[in-house]
Amino acid sequence: MADTHTYEFNVTMTCGGCSGAIDRSYEVSLENQSAKVVTALPYETVLTKIAKTGKKINSATADGIEKSIEIPAAA
């Protein structure tokens, strides 16, 4: 079984519709402006998926460690 990781993102959301754009895939708190993901996927995959919702990512952690929020260039 693959190792799982916990990723937390601070994402700018202004309404329930905004959080819904992310919530379809992740645990989201509009009140806390956060999205939490527990998965075996690589951090960059999750970061890119959230970025594609069009919401601004303000900060992020992976397993409690601060991570870059720069979107990786397409391969």
Please outline what is shown here.
By secondary structure, this protein is an alpha+beta fold. Helix content is 23%, strand content 32%.
Structure description:
With 75 residues, the chain is α+β, with helices and mostly antiparallel strands. It has a single domain (5-66), classed as Alpha-Beta Plaits, CATH 3.30.70. The protein is built from two helices and five strands. The protein has helices spanning 16-23, 43-51; strands at residues 5-11, 27-29, 34-39, 57-62, 65-66.
Helical stretch tally: 2
Q: Please give the largest β-sheet.
A: 5 strands, antiparallel
Mean pLDDT equals 81
Compute the gyration radius: what is it? 12 Å
Shape: globular
**CATH class category label:** Alpha Beta
Poorly predicted residue ranges: none
**SSE succession:** EHEEHEE
Q: What portion of the residues fall into strands of 2 or more residues?
A: 25-35%
Strand order of the largest sheet: 2-3-1-4-5
Helix content: 10-25%
Question: Structurally, how many domains make up the residues?
Answer: 1
Secondary structure tally: strands: 5
By CATH, the architecture is named 2-Layer Sandwich
Ends distance = 27 Å
- CATH third-level topology: Alpha-Beta Plaits
